[in-house]
Amino acid sequence: MKKDDIIVIVPTYNNPLTIENVAKDILNHGYRVIIIDDGSDTKVEDSIPWRDDKLSIVRHPYNKGKGEAITTGAKEAQKKGYAYFVSIDGDGQHLASQIEKIIEQCDGEHQIIIGARNFDINHVPNGSKFGRWFSNFWACWDTEQTITDSLSGFRLYPVSILDLIIQTRRFDWEMEVLVKHAWKGRLIKEVTIECYYPTPEERVSHFKKFWDTAAIVMVHVKLLPWKSFLKKKYQ
Question: How far is CA 65 from CA 43, 60, 112, 170, in A?
Answer without folding.
Answer: 16, 10, 21, 4
